[in-house]
């Protein structure tokens, strides 16, 4: 009788501990579980984890937005490619193709959700409006394709058209972002001219026109050195311009006449005089 009582007590203890043990085991393996969307069901994305990986890289909001647009374009293009691929008449019913539709759709939705969380200001706002328009179309395309697969009905040609149009909006957004980045870079102060690089550029330029060591060569080099000195002594206050306007002119002339300091100097003088005259 005592043995039976002990056995019963042990059994009760094991049963009571089972839920706790199961909970602990579930917690141990939860991080390794990869969720797969059941056919026909929607994916629920934890908004608390969206963009977490990007935030850990200490990106600026502008860089983060650029990366998100890239991701949206990549996945939208992949969705369009899946539609094109299925035109062979057999892919639609194949499990590998359907699995890729599921994967691309999930990544696309994740990228689109990140787009709604980014904060955009200034020159990037136009790009944001374009990206949002593309996002609406891309989401519709994904819904049409995923619904066709879930219902086993190969009627989704519009998904390809919408995905193609959405990708166009994302490309336009990238172009606007590129122009905005160039404009911002032009407003920054130009780096000082490196004397070693300048001498190399002068020698190459003048040597291509005159024999090195000739008087014409020496005169050419002297003109470029004088131009470098003139630009070094030129500042916003000395020409009566705001720093931003001064920087834009200097950077534009520097890129247009890379390595040719005489022409850079002339470019600066002309444009700064024109800018001052319009003030």
Describe the model.
It is a single chain. The chain has 279 residues and is mainly α. The chain has two domains: 57-187, Four Helix Bundle (Hemerythrin (Met), subunit A), CATH 1.20.120; 195-278, no CATH class. It is 73% helix and 0% strand. It is built from eleven helices and no strands. Helix 5 packs antiparallel against helix 6 (157-187), helix 7 (195-207) packs antiparallel against helix 8 and helix 10 (243-256) packs antiparallel against helix 11 (261-278). The chain is elongated, with a radius of gyration of 32 Å. Residues 1-53 have low confidence and may be disordered.
Strand-helix topology:
Elements: H1 2-29, H2 52-55, H3 61-85, H4 95-117, H5 125-150, H6 157-187, H7 195-207, H8 215-232, H9 236-239, H10 243-256, H11 261-278
Helix pairs in contact: 3-4, 3-5, 3-6, 4-5, 5-6, 7-8, 8-11, 10-11
CATH top-level class of the largest domain? Mainly Alpha
Beta strands, count = 0
Q: What is the helix tally?
A: 11
Question: What would you report as the Rg, rounded to the nearest angstrom?
Answer: 32 Å
Please indicate the count of domains: 2
Q: Per the principal axes of the C-alpha atoms, what is the gross shape? A: elongated
Report strand %. Answer: under 5%
Secondary-structure arrangement, i.e. CATH architecture of the largest domain: Up-down Bundle
Q: Considering DSSP H and I runs of 4 or more, what fraction of the residues is helical?
A: over 70%
Query: Might you state the CATH topology name of the largest domain?
Result: Four Helix Bundle (Hemerythrin (Met), subunit A)
Order of helices and strands: HHHHHHHHHHH
For the biggest sheet, the summary is: none
Low-pLDDT segments: 1-53
Report the mean per-residue pLDDT as an integer. 82
Distance between the termini: 107 Å
Structural class label: mainly alpha
């Amino acid at each position: 009788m005592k043995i039976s009582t002990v056995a019963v007590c042990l059994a009760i203890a094991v049963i009571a501990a089972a839920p706790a043990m199961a909970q602990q085991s579930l917690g141990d393996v939860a991080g390794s579980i990869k969720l797969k969307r059941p056919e026909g069901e929607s994916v629920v994305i934890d908004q608390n984890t969206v963009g977490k990986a990007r935030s850990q890289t200490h990106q600026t909001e502008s860089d983060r937005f650029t990366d998100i647009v890239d991701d949206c374009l990549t996945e939208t293009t992949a969705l369009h490619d899946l539609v094109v691929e299925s035109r062979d008449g057999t892919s639609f019913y194949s499990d590998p193709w359907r699995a890729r539709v599921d994967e691309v759709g999930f990544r696309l939705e994740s990228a689109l959700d990140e787009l709604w969380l980014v904060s955009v200001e200034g020159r990037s706002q136009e790009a944001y409006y374009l990206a949002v328009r593309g996002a609406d179309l891309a989401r519709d395309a994904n819904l049409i394709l995923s619904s066709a697969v879930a219902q086993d009905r190969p009627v989704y040609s519009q998904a390809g058209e919408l995905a193609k149009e959405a990708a166009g909006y994302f490309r336009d957004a990238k172009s606007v972002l590129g122009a905005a980045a160039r404009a911002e870079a032009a407003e920054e102060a130009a780096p000082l001219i490196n004397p070693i690089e300048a001498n190399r550029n002068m020698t190459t330029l003048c040597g291509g026109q005159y024999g090195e060591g000739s008087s014409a060569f020496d005169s050419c080099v002297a003109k470029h050195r004088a131009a470098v000195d003139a630009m070094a002594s030129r500042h916003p206050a000395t020409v009566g311009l705001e720093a931003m306007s001064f920087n834009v002119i200097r950077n534009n002339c520097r890129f247009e006449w890379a390595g040719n300091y005489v022409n850079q100097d002339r470019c600066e003088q002309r444009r700064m005089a024109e800018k001052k005259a319009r003030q």
